[in-house]
Every structure is written in structure tokens, then in C-alpha cells.
Amino acid sequence: MPHGDSESYSKHFGDTAELYQAALRAGKLAAWETDLVTRTRTWTQDAIDMLGLDVTPGIPIPMDTSNDLLDAMHPGDRHLLDVFHAQLLKKDEIEVSYRIQRPKLGTLYMTGRGRVLRRTAKGTPSRVVHIISDNTTEHENALHRQMLMRELSHRSKNQLTIISVMARQTGRNANSMEEFQHSFSERLGGLSRSIELLVAGDWQPTPLHALIRSQLESFAGSELERITLSGPEVRVAANIAQALGMSLHELATNAVKYGALSNDTGTVDISWQVRQDDEGAEYLSFKWQERGGPEVSASPRRGFGSVVLETMVASTMDTAPDYQLHPAGVCWQIDAPLNTAPDSQRTRQEPN
């Protein structure tokens, strides 16, 4: 290297130690040295900060009197330190992974390498350098991806179960293939609207107003003007949103075919409120009330609508729906916990 280039290099990057430190910090790494002959560790400030140690950087610290690394390690991983030392007897470089316990930060996940820089005449490692990185974020992201895959698998199976029941029950009560295709398509549309709303919100609790309106959109027109909504702003969990969305679709479909929305004068009142019990648990009290429609009577056939409004809601929302066919019109009510277990923690019983 020409003299001028050397001076320029030194001016911009400083000495080797400074460049070494800058590279470690850029890579969010930390390093220290272990002398297995004198049994001492020499820490850098970056390693001290990463591991949360209370030692002085740059000064060899005897391991026999103060084993700071061992104290910092998670109790369940401390046995690995002897394993790492044993591996260094056989090879010059090892990969390491272990956990660190930080009082305020909790458990941190470390990954890195240990490399033998010098050995004694007998081949025993005398000087070892360690380079590690805090891999906690990557570890948590990996766990999150695993959780999402399990949740996706569960939800897919759950949707297929619902669609299977939907197809079987719709086919059982259809008088023709055309009737089956129409009813099945409409029900798939209702289920799809609920899922689209949940996906848009990343499967987080969904605004009840938005859920109701998404199910009533397919009935837009004069019928929609005769439906009133009354209730506070409230968000419902994904499992509640799906069951309630399917129920609203069935109720609206029946109201248009046979109930209050099948004539020119009937109305539907949808109301809800949130109440608390003595222990502070929140409950959603929801009511669908029809008025002014033709007189209704119970059907001798138990179709998919009945399965949704009674069995599926009961198992999913941990409630006993009150479904009554009054002369004045259908009345469907639930009083369900707002904090029921998510779908992945519940066991669904498939209706017959």
C-alpha cells in the first residue's frame, strides 16, 4: 500500500482495535476473551452491556473467584458452559446458543461462536475469543411464526368443518339442486364476509357495528331501511365475531323469506349492551327482535340455520341462546362472555 493510502486509511478508520470495535457494533455483536491457562476472562464494554455484567472492561477477571458469565446465564443453561469448554478441546471453533437472565429484561437468547486463538504445547486451548449476538427478537419472531402457522392450520380446519356441516345441512333440506346451490352460495357469502372483516383486522377484536353491517349489506334496499341498530361501541373476539356473523346472516335470510322483512311493514330491531357481573367479567347481551311480519311458526325440519342459531352459538360463545317464535315475530337473544377462549383453545363439537 502506498504511503499516502496508508495515512488515508489510518485517518478514516483509526487503528485495528477501533475498526474491530466498530464492526462488532455495526453487527450488534459483542466479544470477550477467555484464558483457560490463567482461568481469566477479559470483557469488552459491549459484552458487559449486552450481558448485563457488573465488571470492569479490559481487566482479566479470575473465573475461580468471580464467574460472571455463569451467574448471568439462565439456570437451565449453566451446564452448557462445561460443554462448550469440552468442545474447544477437540476443535478450534464452536457454535453456541444459550439464554441470559436480565433482571429487568427477562430472558434473552444469545447465539454466537467461540474460537481458539492459541493452544499450549499439549494442545489445550489457552486463548479463546467469543463473539455473540442478542438473538431474542429473531427467537420471538420464530415463535410468533410458529404460532401463526398453528393458528392458520386450526382456523382452516375449523372453516372446513363449518363448510362441511353447512353443505350437509343445506343439502338435506333443499328441494332441488338449484335451491341447494343458491342457499349454499348465500351462506358461503355470509361466512366469507365475516372472515374478510376478521382478516382485515388481523384477527383482532372486531367492532360489532362493522360486523352487523357487513352481514346486512347483501340485504341492501328497502329492507335495510327497516332495520335499526342500537348499542354502544364494542369489539368482539374472532370466535364470537364468526359465530355471531353467521347467526346474523341466518336471521336476516329468514326475515326476508318468512319474517318481518317479507312484507312492506315489518321491522327488525337489533340491540346490544355490555354488562359486568359481580366479579367484573364482561358479557355481551345481544337481541334480534322482529315486529310486524306475518305470523310465524316452527318448521318441522331442523336446517343449518337452527344449527347455527342454537348449537354452534352455544358451543362457540359459551351461552344458551334464547330463540323464540312469537306471533309478533322472531326474537333471538344471547348473553355471552366477551372474553371466551379463542378458537385454538376450544373443542368444537360438530353438529349432526
How is this structure best described in words?
It is a single chain. It contains 11 helices and 13 strands. It is α+β, with helices and mostly antiparallel strands and 352 residues long. It has a 6-stranded antiparallel beta sheet, sandwiched between helices. Helix 7 (177-200) packs antiparallel against helix 10 and helix 8 (208-216) runs parallel beside helix 10 (238-257). Residues 1-14 and 341-352 have low confidence and may be disordered.
Helix-strand blueprint:
Blueprint: H1 3-13, H2 16-26, E1 29-35, E2 40-43, H3 45-51, E3 61-62, H4 68-72, H5 80-88, E4 93-102, E5 106-119, E6 125-134, H6 136-173, H7 177-200, E7 206-207, H8 208-216, H9 222-225, E8 227-230, E9 235-236, H10 238-257, E10 267-276, E11 282-291, H11 304-317, E12 322-326, E13 329-337
Parallel strand pairs: 8-10
Antiparallel strand pairs: 1-2, 1-6, 2-3, 4-5, 5-6, 7-9, 10-11, 11-13, 12-13
Helix pairs in contact: 6-7, 7-8, 7-10, 8-10, 10-11
Short account of what is shown:
This protein is an alpha+beta fold and 352 residues long. It has 11 helices and 13 strands. The protein has helices spanning 3-13, 16-26, 45-51, 68-72, 80-88, 136-173, 177-200, 208-216, 222-225, 238-257, 304-317, and strands at 29-35, 40-43, 61-62, 93-102, 106-119, 125-134, 206-207, 227-230, 235-236, 267-276, 282-291, 322-326, 329-337.
